Every structure is written in C-alpha cells, then in structure tokens.
Amino acid sequence: MSLKITAAQMVANARARIEEIETADAIAMVNDPTVQIVDIRDPRERQRTGYIPGSFHCPRGMLEFWVDPDSPYFKEVFAQDKKFVFHCASGWRSAISTATLQDMGFDAAHLKEGFSTWEAAGGPVEHAEPKA
Ligand SMILES: O=S(=O)([O-])[S-]
C-alpha cells in the first residue's frame, strides 16, 4: 500500500513551519514561570522514564480537545498566558501536534529532540511514586 504522505514526511512538513526549541534552551525554561512544558507521551512512558518537573501531562489523543475553550474537555492550564512547549520522546509526535495546534490558532513550540536527550543533556527528571 502506498500512502499519500508518509509519517516521516508529515513530521518534516510540520518541523518546517513550527518553532523548535533545543534541549539546552528548554532546560533553562524549567523553572521559568512564564513557560508551561506539556508532555504528550503516553502515561506508561512517563511512568517508565520519568518526566520534566512541572510538566503538564496531556496525552496526545486529547490534545485538540483540551486546548479548545469551546470543547467540553477544555483544561484551564491552556488558558494561561504562557509560552507552551510541547514534547514527546523524540520530537516526532510533538512536531505534528504543534503544527496541528498552529492550525487551530494556538501558539506553541516543541522540544526538537524530545525527552530522548533530556537527561544526558543535564535536564532535571522527576519520577512518579511506584504503584503500590
Ligand atoms: O513521537 S516520538 O518522537 O516520541 S517516537
């Protein structure tokens, strides 16, 4: 089966039109009260690898519905007057998601390399309590 567009091409198209933030620059934003980092990974990924302190968890599947004030699923966190930086594991899902948000008129950027290089680059990581 040949697709009209590949996933890799979708990521490339998205990356060409969104703001990409380098890991070192994002690390400097962790305690910045004007920035909200949003983790769109699955709950199990967050559980397994830990997460960026202060990051808000928004599963990718709910993204459009949680940012839209007209949606019954709207989350107040997205009403904040802050810079929103979305991330996933390697920057693919967050690139496509950020382009989608841009199409919706929601201003956001994404973490170019995702969480994959975060810890090695010196980024702080928090771990959830193990399930009892
Ligand atoms: O979407 S991904 O970059 O986390 S594999």
Verbal overview:
It comes from Sulfitobacter donghicola DSW-25 = KCTC 12864 = JCM 14565. Residues 31-127 form the Rhodanese domain. It holds the Pfam family Rhodanese. This is Sulfurtransferase. With 132 residues, this protein is α/β, with parallel strands linked by helices. It has a single domain (21-117), classed as Oxidized Rhodanese, domain 1 (3-Layer(aba) Sandwich). The chain is 30% helix and 14% strand. The chain is built from 5 helices and 5 strands. A 5-stranded parallel beta sheet has the order 1-5-4-2-3. β2 (35-39), α3 and β3 form a beta-alpha-beta unit. The structure holds thiosulfate. Thiosulfate is lined by residues 88-93, 114.
Brief write-up:
This protein has 132 residues and is α/β, with parallel strands linked by helices. Helices cover 30% and strands 14% of the residues.
* Alpha carbon gap, first and last residue: 45 Å
In which order are the strands of the major sheet placed?
A: 1-5-4-2-3
Shape: globular
| CATH 4th-level superfamily | Rhodanese-like domain
Please work out how many helical segments DSSP would assign: 5
Total domain units = 1
* Structural class assignment: alpha/beta
CATH level 1 name: Alpha Beta
pLDDT average, as an integer?
96
Q: Topology as H/E string?
A: HEHEHEHEHE
Low-confidence stretches: none
Bound small-molecule species = thiosulfate
**CATH fold-level assignment:** Oxidized Rhodanese, domain 1
Annotated CATH architecture: 3-Layer(aba) Sandwich
Largest sheet: 5 strands, parallel
Percent in helix: 25-40%
